[in-house]
Write the structure tokens for this entry.
Amino acid sequence: MPNVLDTEKAVQLRDYPAAIARRWWIIALAVLAAAASSFLVGKFQSPVYRSSITLVDTARLDWGTTMTVQVLLRQQEEELKTLSLASRVRERMGLDLPPEAIQGKIVTKSYADSISVRLDVEDSDPERARLIALGYGVVFPEQKAAQYAQAPDWERVRVAMLEEPRSGTLVRPNVRLTTAAGAILGLVFGLLLAAALEYLDDTLRSPEDVALQLDIPVLGAIPRIAR
């Protein structure tokens, strides 16, 4: 026969769906509050736009040259992040930002399989993001061409911009995603709160509750009479 503890657990688990149904307004309020808060946070965040370019390295790709270019990709990433290059981009594009600000707006990533470096520019102005990316796409290949000007043709590694950048696209805030995430978190919180309130509630709502709490059998019940 099942013991008292097993019976108690079964009753409690059975009561939770009913408890959630009784406290639906708590769950709904938690979802609405979390979703509204997330929506407002997203709306009041400053927009950030991203414009990107891909810089491709080309050369006579025998095994040794390929290995050399792969090693140089990380070096090129570091060169792209230098303050001196940011200054040249500022001068070339006529930007009203200090070099330090331009330097802080770029992110690079190298791809050894395609022997290329991707450069992303994030800015609050989509057109300025495009201009900065374009500046790097023009100035950096010129710098590398000057560096290899005296090298034999078969040793040269040429850097070229794959295509001109487009006006920046919005990357954050993503209001829809933020609002949906807030609603999900609110739902989880509301369910947990409803379950916690049910756990702390010692109200006797049914004959089973009376038998469980008082450990005596229920002989009868007085029905509710509608007036």
Remarks:
- The domain at 48-172 is CATH 3.30.1890.10 (Bacterial polysaccharide co-polymerase-like).
- Confidence is low (pLDDT under 50) at residues 4-11.
- Residues 49 and 171 are 6 Å apart (CA to CA).
